[in-house]
């Protein structure tokens, strides 16, 4: 009996070893309509994938993603892949607005590109065939009937892929299962939400000069100089910065301190605004007067009608973005 147990144990170990050597399990794909088929696996290559569009450089921005066709024939059953898109925008207080507009409650899309199965290629390093889906922002904007001037930061292009195999079957976002869409093994959403983003990189410590300061609580004539820090408030919202002193030295001039104030500078596609409050609960506003690249000049005002005019000097090698306003 002991010998049998040992033999059984060795068999289990060998079976586990053999299974671990397999780099792929034949795709018994859980589609809602098919038992087996194909899916397009997203190849996560950060150096090549581009899943967002730069609002400040739409002319040179592109949607670019590498996909791998996985099927029982090692990716050779793909006949074509159709790339369809629509544009959406969140209207505050209203909801989502789509272009093309929905009709009868149904999603409307336009085809922006079609990739032939012959464009999928195989390399010695990959078992399955791959291709790059590359569409310019200009082509996407034109396809939905908009112009670059009509695009806003925060807009999204919904990009959907529809793969047709050599049997005429279509695989896409409407008949995928949750496993195919979001499972780590499959990683095949067939849908990419390509956002219009406004990169912001204002974090740092800057020299300032404050003038024209006024307050009912104290006064400070002439010019104040000092340093202020902008620190990213949340890594998930890198365009929001905590300001180390939103009075830019004014309070210190008449004996007060910034203390526990939590005022934040928001960079919304180049439009600057303040949010949060100081230690007394006052909010702040900002009005940009000029931006020369080396000097950003603005007026701040709080709810207690304190105010000042500030010149914020850019650091060497990092001019203020000309989009700030």
Automatic annotation (TrEMBL):
It comes from the Bacteria. Keywords: Signal. Residues 1-25 form the signal peptide. This is DUF1735 domain-containing protein. It comes from Mongoliibacter ruber.
């Amino acid at each position: 009996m002991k010998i049998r147990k040992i033999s059984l144990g060795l068999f289990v170990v060998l079976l586990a070893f053999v299974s671990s050597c397999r780099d792929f399990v034949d795709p018994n794909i859980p589609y809602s309509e098919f038992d087996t088929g194909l899916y397009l696996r997203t190849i996560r290559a950060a150096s090549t994938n581009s899943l967002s569009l730069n609002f400040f450089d739409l002319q040179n921005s592109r949607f670019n993603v590498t996909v791998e066709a996985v099927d029982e024939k090692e990716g050779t059953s793909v006949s074509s892949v159709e790339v369809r898109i629509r544009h959406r925008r969140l209207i505050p207080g209203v909801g989502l607005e789509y272009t093309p507009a929905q009709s009868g409650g149904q999603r409307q899309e336009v085809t922006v590109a079609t990739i032939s199965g012959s464009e999928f290629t195989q390399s010695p390093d990959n078992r399955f065939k791959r291709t790059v889906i590359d569409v310019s922002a200009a082509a996407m904007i034109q396809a939905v009937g908009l112009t670059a001037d009509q695009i806003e930061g925060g807009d999204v292009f919904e990009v959907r892929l529809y793969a047709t195999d050599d049997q005429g079957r279509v695989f896409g976002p409407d008949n995928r299962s949750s496993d195919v869409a979001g499972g780590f093994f499959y990683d095949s959403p067939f849908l990419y939400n390509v956002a219009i983003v406004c990169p912001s990189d204002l974090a740092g410590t800057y020299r300032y000069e404050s003038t024209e300061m006024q307050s009912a609580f104290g006064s400070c004539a002439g010019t104040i100089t000092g340093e202020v820090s902008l620190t990213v408030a949340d890594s998930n919202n890198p365009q929001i910065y905590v300001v180390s002193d939103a009075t830019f030295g004014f309070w210190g001039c008449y004996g007060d301190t910034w203390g526990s104030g939590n005022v934040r500078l928001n960079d919304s596609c180049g439009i600057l605004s303040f949010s949060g409050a100081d230690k007394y609960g006052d909010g702040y506003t900002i009005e940009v007067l000029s931006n020369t690249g080396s000097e950003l000049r603005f007026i701040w005002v709080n709810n207690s009608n304190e105010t000042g005019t500030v010149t914020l000097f850019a650091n060497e090698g990092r001019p203020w973005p000309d989009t700030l306003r």
